[in-house]
Amino acid sequence: MIHGTLTQENNTSFILDEVGVRHFEERTIWDRYLSHWTGQKVFARELGQLDYNKKEPIIILWPDEKEPKEPFIDLYYNERLVKYFTSLLGHTAINVNGSIINYSHLMNENEIMAKEEYFYRPALGEFAPSPINGKFEILEDGRAFYDKFGRNFMRTIHRIRIFGLDTENFMSELTQSLESILNTPPNPAEPEKYRDFSMVSNNCATVIRDAFNVCGFPEIAGRFPRDLFVNATYHLVNYSDLDIKYTKLPQLTVMEAPMSRVSPLLNFRNYFRKNELRIFEAS
To answer: Which pTM value belongs to this model?
Structure first.
């Protein structure tokens, strides 16, 4: 892993470290990184996936951000992607001490990944949208375009950071659920999709809700991402002695993704709960 300043000089981009060494000068650095972070301190490393143009490992960059030293859990509500109907209700994911667990109707999106990959993957290689339809597509030549680059480039993300939970217990429950999904035999007609996924009863929100229920919060409810986010925040703020912080992570604008939108709250009680939560107003 490299740490240094993202630099552009004479139409060349590179990472300049503290002793003056230039890293990745002859490699492809996604130009959206340059538009957002040139002159800033960043981390960088290679990924296992290849850039389709140069057939070289993709370079991922991410900001130099301080991480908590004490155990924490982040609950994320991702606003909806306007170009996908299946994203109408948004998405939720969870971060346990820096490992982000993601659940999805697509099998290849059920995974545990480092924070930088979840938030900041570049739209290169298989992470990029298809050059033909701008969405998910596998071309006749076998190249896959999964359109799953960094989520913060694709959406605005709402986060509550929770201190004081038993993170080991949570991680155990979440990984058991992930293993169950990954071990589910596929539907031969749609092998790329999670066979038992249901938009109403078995989705990214319900899996995380069930983990909260098992780990000592049976009152937390919600079938859909934004409803779960508001409901969980309400109960954790009002009925626990946990330290809760809310943060809104605005979408980092790139041409590969239209601006996301807030999905509706489908449980009317959550409108009132959200309005009661001063934690949102103060952030």
So the answer is: 0.94
